[in-house]
Amino acid sequence: MNTFSKQPSETYTIGIEFAGKLPTGATIVSGTVSAKDQANIDQTATVLSGTSATILGTEALIKVLAGTHGQNYRIKFLVTLSTSDLLEEDVLMRVANE
Predict the structure, then answer these.
(1) Alpha-carbon distance 74 to 44, whole Å?
(2) Strands across the sheet with 86-95, in order?
(3) What residues form DSSP beta bridges with 60?
(4) 43's torsion region: left (phi>0), alpha (psi -120 to 50) or beta?
(5) Which element (helix H / strand E) includes 14?
(6) What does the DSSP 8-state code read for residue 77?
(7) Mean pLDDT over all residues of the chain?
(8) Strands across the sheet with 59-64, in order?
(9) Looking at residue 97, what is its pLDDT?
(10) Dist CA 68 CA 60 (whole Å)
(11) How many domains is the chain partitioned into structurally?
(12) What CA dihedral angle connects 31, 88, 23 and 83, to 10 degrees?
């Protein structure tokens, strides 16, 4: 699982590249994103700009927003392919301590 760190007030776009996982001829048609904290509680509305990923070629993008000092969040990208297959990739967001 990829990991990145941020400060609580930073907001920026992150992306997951799916090129190496796509079957031959398949494209990404849509994507959803969710975020859960260390207690497995849904924090999507707090730390992400929404639940729909922006698809740019073979990459799924979402803007990360806030976060609590010292908290880790698992961000899950789930993309649907033109073949109706689903691919999932997770990333760990670590929010810096005070």
Answers:
(1) 10
(2) 2-6, 86-95, 72-81, 28-37
(3) 16, 55
(4) alpha
(5) strand 12-17
(6) E
(7) 96
(8) 12-17, 59-64, 54-56
(9) 87
(10) 24
(11) 1
(12) -50
What is d(CA 5, CA 28) in angstroms, rounded to the nearest whole number?
Answer: 27
DSSP 42: B
- For residue range 47-62, list pLDDT tens digits in order: 999 999 999 999 999 9
Q: Which two tokens stand for residue 35?
A: 């975020």
Using CA atoms, how far apart are residues 61 and 22, in angstroms rounded to an integer? Answer: 16
Q: Residue 61 belongs to what domain range?
A: 2-95
For the chain, what's the residue count?
A: 98
Which CATH number goes with the domain that contains 43? 2.60.40.1220
Q: What is the pLDDT of residues 65-95, one digit of tens each?
A: 989 999 999 999 999 999 999 999 999 999 9
pTM: 0.93
Nearest CA to 4 out of 88, 74, 87, 81 is that of 74
